[in-house]
Amino acid sequence: MSAHLHKQILRLKQMIVDLGTQVDVAVQHALQAVHERDPELAREVVAGDERIDMLEVEIEEECLHALALHQPVALDLRYVIAMLKINNDLERIGDLAVNIADQAIFLSGESEVVLPFNLEGMGDGVSRMLQQARAALLDLDVKQAERVRLEDDKIDAIHRDMYRQVEQAIREQPTNTEQYIHMLNVSRHLERIGDHAVNIAEDVIYMARGEIMRHRQPPAEESVSGV
Question: Where is the chain membrane-spanning (predicted)?
């Protein structure tokens, strides 16, 4: 790797880490706005998405510049391509945080309902996946990336269970139908954020090993739990 390319890849990595931090904060604040019925915090998440979009464009241009100027091959090419994909996933997570914030703004103007499910626990699980994905990226840690893939199965199961519980809650309290549907939307957006965290984890494995993990099942939990 040339010194110039090495320097540019380090810069790209730092930019991706910065974007990941901003996106993580946006998701956490959006969830906080839902739990605390705080429309002002939700509006801050919506307004902050412009910064995320600008950084995403800047990273994409940096990747394209590295490809055009240095024409990297093998491991270096893999690295830059993975950065492009991770950049896109992070931007989409930012959009989903905005979607959750929009639900929070709506819910803050409605009567509060008792939820039949643990939305806060699901939010904690998805935030943990994002933190693990960022840690995996920082250290190119394959074991950490595999943990993200394992965690996604749990999030998907929680989302499916929430769907059933919301159906039951609407039958019992039809006057709260709108609130329950918006809460279910939050669950759906969280489930999608989990999917993007998995994409990032799979790109980390691709960067580290050159293996394409899409459509492949994660390893058994015990094989990664001891690290």
Answer: none
Strands (E), 27-147: none
- Phi, psi (deg, nearest 5) at residue 219: -70, 170
- pTM for the model stands at 0.90
Structure tokens belonging to residue 202: 């799979």
HSE (side-chain half, CA atoms, 13 Å) at 42? 21
| Residues 31, 171: Cα–Cα separation, whole Å | 26
Could you read off the pLDDT of 80-112 as tens digits, one per residue? Answer: 999 999 999 999 999 999 999 999 999 999 988
Which of 36-50, 67-81, 195-209 has the weakest average pLDDT?
A: 67-81
**pLDDT band of 216, cuts 50, 70, 90:** confident
- Cα–Cα distances in Å, from 16 out to 97, 112, 134, 207? 18, 38, 9, 14
To 10 degrees, what angle do helices 119-139 and 3-36 make? 170
Q: Is 50 exposed, middle or buried (0-12, 13-18, 19+ CB in 10 A)?
A: exposed
pLDDT recorded at residue 227 = 42
Within its chain, how far is the Cα of 96 from the centroid? 8
